[in-house]
Specification:
By secondary structure, the chain is an alpha+beta fold. The protein has 7 helices and 3 strands. It folds into 2 domains: 5-63, no CATH class; 77-179, no CATH class. Residues 159-168 have low confidence and may be disordered.
């Protein structure tokens, strides 16, 4: 079983309910509700449930492995924004914080004035694609994407206008890195 009962109890989780989550995932994959998933539940860094079920590629028969990258499009944006806002609430960041104040390498090639607010509101002026030189199999590697974003050039002028340039996926990866 993937439920760590002793940890679950120590962290205030009901191990039986966690086991039901795991069983439901297994049933859903078997019923082809979705192909597969990986789920990790933790509190204060203490992992209480680790689940990897189903297929990364059902057609090829390739199973989900631990730390399996999934192409989720924009699903994670709301989690990233919530985490960044929590850091702002705790006083660790501000909407006016320049990205380069947190990651000095980001200032390269004209990106020194881009703020957290501009990243969150898609007004940073960065291109809307992955940065050049990042192979498809590396798009899930936070350090690779952040390094490539730092080395990239802002393609458009940052704006406060209503017609706003969109923020790159890579910039959102930066936010994920800062948030976590």
């Amino acid at each position: 079983m993937s439920v760590h009962e002793d940890r679950a109890a120590r962290q205030g989780f009901d191990a039986e309910r966690l086991a039901r989550v795991e069983a439901r995932i297994a049933r859903d994959v078997a019923a082809e509700v979705y192909d597969g998933c990986e789920l990790v539940v933790a509190r204060r860094g203490d992992v209480v449930l680790e689940v990897s079920h189903g297929f990364a590629d059902r057609g090829a028969g390739r199973r989900v492995e631990a730390s399996q990258p999934f192409f989720t499009m924009s699903v994670g944006k709301q989690f990233t924004v919530a985490t960044v806002l929590q850091r702002i609430e705790r006083g660790e960041l501000a909407l006016t914080t320049r990205v380069a104040d947190v990651i000095p390498e980001f200032a390269a090639r004209g990106k020194d004035r881009i703020t957290v607010a501009q990243i969150l509101t898609h007004t940073s002026g960065l291109a809307t694609m992955h940065p050049d030189g990042v192979a498809q199999d590396k798009t899930g590697d936070l350090e690779t994407v952040v390094a490539a974003t730092c080395a990239s050039r802002g393609s458009r002028r940052a704006s406060r206008a209503t017609s706003r340039p969109r923020t790159t996926t890579a910039a959102r990866w930066w936010l994920r890195g800062v948030a976590t």
